[in-house]
Design goal:
GO terms for molecular function: monooxygenase activity. By secondary structure, this protein is α+β, with helices and mostly antiparallel strands. It is built from three helices and four strands, in the order βαββααβ.
């Protein structure tokens, strides 16, 4: 269906607080502006666990994601979230290929920084 790839990074605010997660997410997102192949990223907060977050990034394809992941700036750019990664479920991230999509274009949301 699609070559698109979504990367989920599991993050916890249990020790640092939600402001630390949100701040790190926004710093990283600003740094990633213009990254080839990066289509979008989102910060999701759990409804059931207010300390639980997921950063979801969407990539054009696996080649674009791998090029960025293996590049020089990957580790330094994502460093602010690294201490906040949630290792309680084993791996703190997952990489998924998009297999099918149903879209509802009648509703749109454009979120940004609060405040």
């Amino acid at each position: 269906m699609s070559d698109r790839v979504r990367v989920l990074v599991f993050v916890t605010a249990a020790d640092a607080g939600p402001e630390a997660v949100e701040g790190a997410y926004h710093r990283i997102s600003r740094s990633l502006t213009g990254t080839p192949g990066l289509l979008a990223n989102e910060l999701l907060r759990s409804v059931h666990d207010p300390a639980g977050f997921v950063v979801m990034s969407e990539w054009r394809d696996m080649d674009a994601f791998r090029a960025w992941e293996e590049g020089e700036s990957h580790r330094s750019t994502t460093a602010p979230l690294r201490p906040l990664q949630d290792h309680s479920r084993g791996a703190s991230f997952g990489v998924y290929t998009v297999q099918a999509v149903y879209e509802n274009r009648t509703a749109a949301y454009a979120g940004g920084e609060k405040g």
